[in-house]
TrEMBL record:
ANK repeats lie at residues 70-91, 184-206. SMART domains: ANK. Keywords: ANK repeat, Membrane, Transmembrane, Transmembrane helix. Pfam families: Ank_2, Ank_4, PGG. It comes from Gossypium klotzschianum. This is PGG domain-containing protein. The lineage of its organism: Eukaryota, Viridiplantae, Streptophyta, Embryophyta, Tracheophyta. InterPro entries: Ankyrin_rpt, Ankyrin_rpt-contain_sf, PGG_dom.
Length: 405
């Protein structure tokens, strides 16, 4: 490459770039004809000159896919030299660049899986091109294989959660990526077992698509791999692999919902808070002012009729039809409102959660007051308790697991 052109790329001088084009209009054509070469785009990527790089991509898009003598594209170089935001800029122009393979068949996604500092970028990269999760290295490994083999737990967990969300309605794709075998026949579970990583193993076997009995080229299952190790203590991993827990989807619904809420813009959270606050208000109002009102007291009424004062005038069947869904709507709105508040008011969450717990208690007290019969109250209360315990179980399971790991 001409030194003047190289200097323009290093300094980000776009005017010098066009001046050189005036001098030699075919310069890019000659560079493009070379199989492996450092183009001006490679130089700009290393230097971090985003403006120059974007101009270069506009003039010669093919440079973005060309590998240099070391087997790296401009996208690879930008990432490996610590400029992830520049990679995002490249992908904004051409999202398919994330599938360009360099040395060893590595895409930028494979490299990100190796660096814990970039774990937070995985979801953004994957959202540009979801199918890049299936890209293989020359060792026939996906990014998930690499994260498991190299013990990069944060990257591994981020990708696994993304897979469950992105392919929620496509069991075939989930099964394909989770059970894919590398050149040695190892699945991700084999690799997690090979490094005796209980957390990875736990997350994997909680995915209903993972085949624990898959055999690699040596005829070993993941359990065989684990038991053949000379590790001092692999009891925890063995117990986890032998267990049959709830599926990942059921166990982590609330965790995934919390992650989705965290990624929402403040304006969106504000709108949702208004919506669920209205639902809470309407359902709460339902116990303060029951349909058809309540029986009124009468000084001349008999003792038996006095027992009905303040009770709903609704028949037991009608009461159940109205208040079971009312209670479900109240509890779900109550829970989601707490999650929304947690994302925007975390510092005072302990205070707010206590207030909302009191509101929930008051709802139950009001409901018990207006229930027309003990049996009606029992049915409604049982339904709501079951729902509450289910929500609490899901939340506490995720809370313990993700805080621990």
């Amino acid at each position: 490459m001409d030194e003047r052109l190289k200097r323009a790329a290093e300094t980000g001088n776009i005017d010098a770039l066009y001046s050189f084009i005036h001098h030699d209009a075919n310069v890019f054509k000659r560079i493009d004809e070379m199989e492996f070469v450092d183009t001006p785009l490679h130089v700009a990527a290393v230097a971090g000159n985003t403006g120059f790089a974007m101009e270069m991509m506009n003039l010669k898009p093919s440079f973005a896919r060309k590998l240099n003598q070391d087997g790296f594209s401009p996208l690879h170089l930008a990432l490996l030299t610590g400029k992830p935001e520049m990679v995002i800029d490249f992908l904004s122009v051409d999202k398919d660049l994330i599938r360009v393979k360099g040395k060893g068949g590595f895409t930028v996604l494979h490299h990100v899986a190796l660096d814990e500092n970039y774990a937070h970028l995985l979801r953004r990269f994957l959202n540009f091109c979801p199918d890049c999760i299936f890209d293989l290295t020359v060792e026939r490994q996906t990014a998930l294989h690499i994260a498991a083999e190299k013990n990069k737990f944060e990257a591994f967990k981020a990708m696994l959660e993304w897979i469950q969300t992105a392919f929620e309605d496509d069991k075939c794709k989930r099964s394909k990526i989770l059970n894919y075998q590398d050149k040695d026949g190892n699945t991700v579970l084999h690799l997690a077992a090979s490094i005796n990583h209980p957390q990875m193993i736990k997350l994997l076997i909680e995915c209903e698509e993972v085949d624990k009995n898959k055999i690699n080229d040596r005829g070993f299952t993941a359990m065989d791999v684990l038991q053949r190790q000379t590790v001092a203590d692999n009891t925890e991993s063995v117990n986890i692999l032998n267990s049959n827990p709830l599926t990942f989807q059921k166990l982590s619904k609330l965790k995934l919902l919390r992650d989705e809420i965290k990624e929402m813009r403040d304006e969106t959270v504000g709108v949702l808070l208004i919506v669920f606050a209205l639902v809470l208000t309407m359902t709460y109002q339902g116990v303060l002012s029951p349909p058809g009102s309540v029986f009124q007291g009468d000084a001349t009424a008999s003792t038996s009729s006095n027992h009905r004062e303040g009770k709903s005038v609704m028949k037991t069947s009608s009461f159940l039809i109205f208040y079971i869904p009312n209670g479900v709507a109240f509890l779900i709105s109550w829970g989601i409102t707490l999650l929304l508040l947690e994302s925007v008011a975390k510092s005072i969450m302990s205070f707010l959660s206590r207030i909302y717990t009191i509101v929930c208690f008051c709802y139950g007290a009001a409901l018990s007051t207006i229930a027309p019969s003990d049996s009606a109250l029992l049915v409604v209360a049982s339904t709501q308790i079951i729902i509450s315990l289910s929500l609490w179980s899901i939340w506490s399971s995720n809370h313990r697991r993700f805080i621990k790991y």
